[in-house]
Design a protein that fits this description.
This protein has 358 residues and is α+β, with helices and mostly antiparallel strands. Helices cover 18% and strands 25% of the residues.
């Protein structure tokens, strides 16, 4: 039996900072009073609800997984969904381990394609949450969809009914230049709606666009729970509320309307992966409900069978799927690594990661 080369670091605390480019947080912590467990969210907006946009789409009602395009007044599929002839259905994410490097890089490029010139239409007053341009919302959905597709999960849709709440949350974080899942009532621009959004969202500060907050969440640098990554890559996630103001983002993530046939996902995923996905902690996440808190991890460089050492992190349960994380000492462009994760609930799972340039 191969020796386990990862030292163990026990992490008992939840989110310990703020995802921001100037000092990061953005996550959902079940270990403090700002977060409630999944399933306790206060909204009930079915994914199949149709809505009537304003402007050139005022008289157009679109169906599930669609939105109205202002320029043409036609209903178009949301990012990650394709026209099946009778409606918009989720594009199959595929098995990451079977992709070519070109296919992986195409997903990465599409995820980072942007169309919005701005992520925020500022309101009439300082504390007015304003609105997000539709293009900025789509850019955000495209980014989430791309990251989820890389690990073999399906897309998500936005919840229009949560837009005002999430904007109140975002302007609250922006005007105070800080992040909190339980903002105090003496904060500038405090509102019940903003506080509700903060208590059910990943939070980010310091980015130039809503889409770029997603990169922060998935990287989750210096967040010991990896809570933001785990919520974005949560198997049951199907709907998100999106808000952005100035340089602050709020992403509502307590949803379980989606589904997946996968029992686990990994970051970086099996198969060819963009080099940018390998720089932070690596992680393995259960999507079947089983705990992997007891998991052991080994990592081998395939070219010569060399064991890769590193540090194993026991991240706490309560943030999306149960997970284990590790920080390898080597992750070289052009190399392939064989990872073996062994846990009581899932048994022994082995997969290979090839780091490619995209």
């Amino acid at each position: 039996m191969r020796k386990i080369f990862f030292a163990i670091v026990i992490v008992l605390a939840g989110c310990d900072g703020s995802l921001s480019t100037s000092g990061e947080d953005a996550g959902s912590s079940m270990t403090n009073d700002a977060y409630a467990p999944p399933g306790t969210d206060a909204y009930a907006a079915p994914m199949t609800d149709a809505y009537t946009p304003m402007g050139g789409c005022a008289t157009v009602t679109c169906g599930a997984n669609e939105r109205c395009d202002e320029a043409s007044s036609d209903c178009v599929c949301l990012p990650g969904f394709v026209d099946s002839g009778s409606g918009c259905t989720a594009a199959p994410p595929g098995d990451p381990s079977t992709r070519t490097s070109a296919e992986t890089c195409a997903i990465w490029a599409e995820a980072h394609r942007t169309t919005a010139t701005s992520s925020w239409n500022e309101g009439a007053s300082t504390c007015d949450g304003g609105t997000m341009p539709r293009e900025a919302i789509d850019d955000t959905l495209r980014r989430i969809t791309g990251f989820r597709a890389l690990v073999g999960l399906g897309p998500v849709v936005d919840i229009p009914d949560l837009a005002a709440q999430q904007q109140s949350c975002a302007v609250l974080m922006y005007r105070n230049g800080s992040l909190s899942h339980g903002p105090p009532m003496d904060w500038m621009c405090y509102s019940a709606a903003g506080a509700a959004g903060a208590g059910s969202s990943n939070l980010a500060l310091g980015t130039g666009s809503s889409a770029d907050t997603i990169d922060l969440y998935v990287d989750d640098h210096r967040v010991d729970s990896l809570g933001h990554r785990r919520w974005v890559l949560n198997g049951p996630l199907g709907r998100v509320g999106i808000g952005f103001a100035g340089n602050a983002g709020c992403l509502s993530v307590f949803d379980s309307s989606g589904s997946t046939s996968r029992t686990w996902i990994a970051w970086p995923p099996p198969g060819p992966v963009p080099e940018a996905t390998t720089n932070a902690w690596w992680s393995f996440q259960s999507t079947s409900g089983g705990s992997v808190m007891d998991a052991s991890v080994t990592m081998v460089r395939v070219s010569d069978g060399m064991d890769v050492t590193g540090t194993l992190h026991r991240v706490p349960d309560g943030y999306g799927g149960s997970s284990v994380a590790w920080e390898p000492t080597e992750r070289a462009l052009g190399s392939r690594y064989r990872v073996t994760v062994t846990s009581g609930s899932l048994g022994e799972i082995t997969y290979e990661v090839e780091i490619v340039g995209c």
